[in-house]
Specification:
alpha/beta; 8-stranded parallel beta barrel; OMPdecase_bac; globular; lyase; EC 4.1.1.23; 10 helices; binds ligand LLZGTKA7; RibuloseP-bd_barrel; orotidine-5'-phosphate decarboxylase activity
Length: about 240
Amino acid sequence: MNINKNPIIIALDYSEESQVWELIDKFDDEQLFLKVGMELYYSCGNNLLHKLKDKGHNIFLDLKLHDIPNTVGKAMKSLARLDVDIVNVHAAGGRLMMERALEGLVAGTVSGKERPMCIAVTQLTSTSQEVMQEQLKINGNIEDVVVHYAKLANESGLDGVVSSPLEVPLVKESCGTSFLTVTPGIRMIGDSKDDQQRITTPKQAKSLGSDFIVVGRSITASKNPLEAYLKIKNEWNDISETTIS
Ligand SMILES: O=c1ccn([C@@H]2O[C@H](COP(=O)(O)O)[C@@H](O)[C@H]2O)c(=O)[nH]1
């Protein structure tokens, strides 16, 4: 995948296809990078993916596979046929699972087509260090855990990770600048955090080195989604704004 694609990935967290078109119709001819997650994929399936691709949009199919290596490998072989741009797994599934995921993708990609990028979720951006330690029983500092999972994903041959923008400098330092960082947990100043814990603004994410930001509710729940998207795009393109902590 060409890294110079639209860096703003819009999370289509909807259950109905009509909601998707209602949003996309507001964007005229803009070539969008769209994230289809579990809610939408389980409701609308491959049919919608094909329609979005036919309109020229890029797709991140965010199903976060996490199962035994054999199952994930075979599932990825099926997903490879969908011709999406990015798929993902949970790094917590371990090295063999990630290696099988990649093998499945290579095996399933139609000859002459580029295989989808495969990235691994490190720690969900809704997970705080406290929750990670107390509920998940993972010891240590959350940045160290994210970097550890990123290194494991890198050694397994994956193309990058999902993390908060806050961890991007450390991930890039450990895994190299070409290792992809796709970062949700994006909020504009004054927005509610909702269930997210490790957040930044789009501008902070850019200055921390994120390759792609994933934005859902700040666009989709906005009164004017196009205006919200353009504001984020402007913020991404202009490094001189204030930050939130
Ligand atoms: O660690 C993760 C992994 C995935 N996500 C997904 O990104 C969007 C974020 O939506 P917002 O409305 O901008 O909070 C959502 O689809 C998540 O499933 C994530 O947030 N964190």
